[in-house]
């Protein structure tokens, strides 16, 4: 919740109410006539789109008397963001929480979870979903053994898609319909296309229902699924790269969660994405739009741009005023130590400005000594993106 005119009672009241932001520079670079709009979820209190379902699943379980403060232990298998939302809710409400999470998920997510008071159990990334070693299998085992253990189960809990049908979707609709069309910024005043990645599928299913039921029946909803996952429909789309591992976190699975609707009435079509294009799109969102988004946001943007270039998407891309909304699920805070991000941020080609800075400092008679070559080469020569951190990296400017 970016702004509230009154005092909030707790962190959970700062979940959601995220901004919808024009991505004009990307649209221009891509030659799009339509409006490209990003729903920026990292401004939510816990930093992702999943705060919304965590809050709702906890509050609805309380209404059903399934949670008892001081007794209940909330256990959840997650790729991390649902865990962070749950740990935040449980910190506010006084429940213990255990998060089971595959090894591939970032250290930052684990640190945030532990900081919020959660216990974290890591599981092998390659374990199949129905293996006792998977994050789901381990959560089930813990639930059986721990008194008061309860799995709210984002994969089956109807409050997952419902949270998005009742909050994320209406927020998008409100933002689009309350922004009038102008000559400079034409708008159909409708959500014409929605593009979102799918993990549990709750986000895309819930937003789609909100839009199609209450706002625009003809809205085209495009799901984004990483190569190696099996969520896309029809199944033939999932053949290329079947079973391969991918780095992007939070989207894709090796089973179809109950809350994902693969019905074409809800999700019209699917695009498969790979890591490389996702990270390239993250870079665009950062450099061109100033948005510090995470990896799956790059997948969603890349999927949107590819769909807009497809035979089906072209007519929307060329339509002035058509509104294409891309769901940007979380922020880079979750991935700061990941090699893909360090490589992107620190291995960039030295800019002409870096050379100029180097020349100025070299010529100046101050005590500051620089090596112009090193500075122009920048951090590139001094970082090792294949290690998890860079504790020994020297400063760029050496002071003597
Ligand atoms: C970073 C990120 N992006 C996208 C998603 C997909 O959301 P959903 O599970 O609602 O499909 C998730 C889910 O965990 C996520 O963590």
UniProtKB/TrEMBL annotation:
Gene Ontology terms: biological process: cysteine biosynthetic process from serine
Region (Disordered) location: 357-400
Molecular function terms from GO: cystathionine beta-synthase activity
Catalytic activity: L-homocysteine + L-serine = L,L-cystathionine + H2O
EC number annotated for this UniProt entry: 4.2.1.22
Cofactors required: pyridoxal 5'-phosphate
Domain Tryptophan synthase beta chain-like PALP: 13-329
InterPro entries reported for this sequence: Cys_Synth/Cystath_Beta-Synth (IPR050214), P-phosphate_BS (IPR001216), TrpB-like_PALP (IPR001926), TrpB-like_PALP_sf (IPR036052)
Keywords: Pyridoxal phosphate
The name this protein goes by in its record: cystathionine beta-synthase
The species this protein was found in: Hermanssonia centrifuga
């Amino acid at each position: 919740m970016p702004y509230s005119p009154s005092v909030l009672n707790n962190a959970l009241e700062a979940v959601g109410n995220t901004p919808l932001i024009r991505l004009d520079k990307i649209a221009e670079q891509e030659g799009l006539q339509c409006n490209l709009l990003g729903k920026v979820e990292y401004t939510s209190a816990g930093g992702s789109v999943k705060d919304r379902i965590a809050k709702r699943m906890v509050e609805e379980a309380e209404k059903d008397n399934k949670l008892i403060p001081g007794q209940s232990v909330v256990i959840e298998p997650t790729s991390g963001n649902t865990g962070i939302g749950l740990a935040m809710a449980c910190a506010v409400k006084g429940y213990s929480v255990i998060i089971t999470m595959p090894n591939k998920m970032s250290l930052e997510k684990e640190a945030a979870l532990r900081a919020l008071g959660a216990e974290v159990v890591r599981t092998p990334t390659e374990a199949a979903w129905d293996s006792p070693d998977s994050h789901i299998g381990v959560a089930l085992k813990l639930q059986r053994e721990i008194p008061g253990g309860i799995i709210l189960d984002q994969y089956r809990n109807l409050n997952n898609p419902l949270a998005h049908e009742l909050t994320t979707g209406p927020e998008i609709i409100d933002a689009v319909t309350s922004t009038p069309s102008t000559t400079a910024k034409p708008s159909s005043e409708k959500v014409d296309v929605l593009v979102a990645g799918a993990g549990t599928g709750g986000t895309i299913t819930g937003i789609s229902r909100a839009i199609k039921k209450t706002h625009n029946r003809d809205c085209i909803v495009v799901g984004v699924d990483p190569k190696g996952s099996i969520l896309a429909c029809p199944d033939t789309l999932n053949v290329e790269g079947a079973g391969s591992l991918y780095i992007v976190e939070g989207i894709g699975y090796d089973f179809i969660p109950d809350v994902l609707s693969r019905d074409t009435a809800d999700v019209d079509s699917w695009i498969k994405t790979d890591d490389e294009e996702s990270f390239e799109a993250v870079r665009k969102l950062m450099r061109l739009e100033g948005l510090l988004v995470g990896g799956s946001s790059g997948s969603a943007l890349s999927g949107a741009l590819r769909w807009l270039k497809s035979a089906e998407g072209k007519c929307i891309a060329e339509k002035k005023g058509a509104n294409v909304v891309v769901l940007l699920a979380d922020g880079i805070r979750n991935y700061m130590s990941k090699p893909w991000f360090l490589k992107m941020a620190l291995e960039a080609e030295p800019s002409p400005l870096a050379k100029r800075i180097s020349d100025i400092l070299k010529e100046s008679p101050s005590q500051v000594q620089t090596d112009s070559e090193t500075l122009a080469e920048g951090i590139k020569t001094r970082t090792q993106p294949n290690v998890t951190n860079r504790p020994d990296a020297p400063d760029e400017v050496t002071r003597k």
